Amino acid sequence: MTDMTEFSPDHSSSWLKLMTAYEQYRQALFYWIKEDNTVKYEDLRIELEPPVLSKERDLLRRLLVVNFLSGSDIWDADNTISLIQDALTEVALTEHVEISCLARKALQKIKNTSKRKAIAEKIMNRAAAEAKKEKPDYDIFHNGCLLLLDLNRRNEYLDFIGCYKEFIFLAYGLDEEDLKEMLNALPQKAR
Predict the structure, then answer these.
(1) What is the model's pTM?
(2) Is 95 exposed, middle or buried (0-12, 13-18, 19+ CB in 10 A)?
């Protein structure tokens, strides 16, 4: 570790503690980002994949991880997030609103078109499986709709609402007008 930046002693003790902690965080992040992809994948997989058997998932810890991934601190975000895009997509589709929103924000950092297309396919497959259930989780359809919009997947969005419109309506009370407004918010050239 390098020497810490010196701040004026005129600052409050809270400010000095905050800046010291932030600088230590940035240094630790620098070293973690330089880890091999298998190490980063394993660290993220442990937190994002569904819990094994009786092990309970910790929502606060999961919130912390997706908040970290959705933030601006990771400078190789496309690579890091791509490592766990399947698990993160599942989190975006199934988790509580706050966690789902942060997972969607993190997935937006993936710029590679083929990876975004793979996420769109996962959304379509997950929704198809959910639609066959006797008691489907309607949030998956709502969150899938939003994730397709976030990824600018216009064609998949149109297919999705064509197939699952009723499920989307049941999730959060969206109606035909809402879906049109959402579509109009997409850039025309979105694929």
Answers:
(1) 0.80
(2) buried
